[in-house]
Amino acid sequence: MGESTVTSLEDREQTAVPDPGTAGRRPGFLRRLRTPRRPRLWFEILLIGVSYWTYSLIRNAVPEQRGEALRNADWIWKVEHHLGIAVEESINHGVNSVTWLIVGMNYYYATLHFVVTLGVLVWLYRSHPGRYAAARMVLFATTLVALVGYYLYPLAPPRLMNGSTFVDTVMVHQTWGSMASGDLKHMSNQYAAMPSMHIGWSLWCGLTIFTLAKVPWVRVLGLLYPTATLLVIVSTANHFWLDAVGGMLCLAFGFAVARIWYGALPYTLPQLPPARATGKRLLPRKA
């Protein structure tokens, strides 16, 4: 009986007791917000849905300043000629001559922009919950600064330029395609080409896949995706090269915001969120 009593006392001494240094102390609200945690599915679905609705609403509410947008397009085109990179028209005509290829690009432009981005978000949610919130912040900050660009710098896409021979590939081939062409064009702002979020989002997807995927061929696909997207946006006459540069700069801003907020880039954070501190500690077993 005596031995049982001693064992009971020793076990009791090893149980969690309040740490005098942390008892009654909770992390500040700001610190809790900046600590990666496991995402909640219902909240993420609601957040993504509301965010995309808000993005579309604001983007399409930006005044369609046609005159200024066309003048800006002329200026961009002149700058690209000066830089020796104004080859979008030749690419547009060349790819448009291969019907199956350009039709495939029309569908690519209309669908993968959303499908792949959502797919990468789901993958992060399931496989990298500790990095999910920071990576999502990059995407959201990128999109937010793009909205500022749409408002401050209206820009007509190449297919709407005055005096050009660019081909609107969706109109010519009668494919179900971009919201900015055909019967759907009245539902979308025609003069929000700068920056290109097709590039901003696809590059975010590509970097995420390349950095975090373990299978080599999947990592290669991650690099190919934004490269293919760049070719598609030019071939379909929806963007200039410099629109893509604008998308890259917006993504750089998004990464900077996440780096400042979390103190690290999203991909360097732990794969799993850290366990919440309990404010308790274990007493050592007495000899």
UniProtKB/TrEMBL annotation:
InterPro entries: Aur1/Ipt1 (IPR026841), IPC_Synthase-Related (IPR052185). The chain crosses the membrane at residues 41-58, 107-125, 137-153, 191-213, 220-238, 244-262. Residues 75-256 form the Inositolphosphotransferase Aur1/Ipt1 domain. It is found in: Membrane. Residues 1-29 are annotated as: Disordered. It comes from the Bacteria. Coiled coil: none annotated. Pfam families: PAP2_3 (PF14378). It is a multi-pass membrane protein. CDD domains: PAP2_Aur1_like. Keywords: Membrane, Transmembrane, Transmembrane helix. PANTHER family: PA-PHOSPHATASE RELATED-FAMILY PROTEIN DDB_G0268928, PTHR31310. This is Inositolphosphotransferase Aur1/Ipt1 domain-containing protein. The lineage of its organism: Bacteria, Bacillati, Actinomycetota, Actinomycetes, Kitasatosporales.
